[in-house]
């Protein structure tokens, strides 16, 4: 027993920064509460009815006083604003280039995790310490919220849109994962664990296909969703062929559809003249609602895959299309 714990453990690079801001706000609040409270009590006693304290020289106004009680709070307010905005921008801005990319699907009522190498987990997330981790998240049904208090991160997980959150875990250990958005009767049970492993342990875990679980306990909330032998990209490639995407999307821009090679990250011009960056969101939308954005020079003839593919499979396709470099060549497929 260590007595009362005021805040969750600090286990990411954001944690200490968020806590510092939090304690600054607490300190400012306590300081002014005590100052103003003490003055109220002091003046109430000193100038109570019937007291003999001198009331001579009382003024209606004092400009210096008015300026200082305007400027001091303004300054403190602006300090908090700039500080918090910077912190927010770093935590919710784009992740570093070298971030480890992992996909998360929220569904009533569990967290499903897909690692690029094919490992899948339910209600568990294994990550290495000391390396930025980028989570691309989507919901299969209602709004959920991915919340790891020890990392001081919380991000809504929305249906129909990828949301990204990133963090760098600092301390190996086991940390609570919560859903922080009421999402139905079993919302409170939509919980899990994040296992932060030493980099060497993480490599072992990856190599064992998720079997080696140094911190997991028998009573842990998670279950392995199974390991497919194929990586996310390979599963996507298989699906791509099965769905015959390559019948219209070849190695180069074809008559019926533009190529997917070298597409990811490119700026694409649409029929209506707008320019869109081909990111995960754009690729997902084009699979499910191909008519929402039609590439310049093409007819809106692609069928929609909405309702035919679950988010897991969409992620596989996105991972595959992302991996297609423009220099890679494939055999043209005749439709
Ligand atoms: Cu999912 Cu609450």
Task: Give the CATH architecture of the domain at 100-227.
Answer: Sandwich
Q: State the distance separating the first and last CA atoms.
A: 69 Å
Radius of gyration: 28 Å
CATH level-4 homologous superfamily of the domain at 100-227: Cupredoxins -  blue copper proteins
Query: Which percent range fits the helix content?
Result: 25-40%
Sketch the topology as an H/E string, one letter per element.
HHEEEEEEEEEEHEHEEHH
CATH class of the domain at 100-227: Mainly Beta
The overall pLDDT, averaged over residues, is 85
Query: Structural class, from secondary structure content?
Result: alpha+beta
Largest sheet: 6 strands, mixed
Number of strands: 13
Structural description of this entry:
This protein is of the alpha+beta class and 335 residues long. Among the domains are: 100-227, Cupredoxins -  blue copper proteins (Immunoglobulin-like), CATH 2.60.40; 232-323, Cytochrome Bc1 Complex, Chain D, domain 2 (Orthogonal Bundle). Helices cover 32% and strands 21% of the residues. The chain starts with 12 loop residues before the first helix and ends in a 12-residue tail after the last helix. Mean pLDDT is 85; it is low at 216-224 and 329-335. Residues 106, 109, 144, 179, 181-183, 187, 190 line the site of dinuclear copper ion.
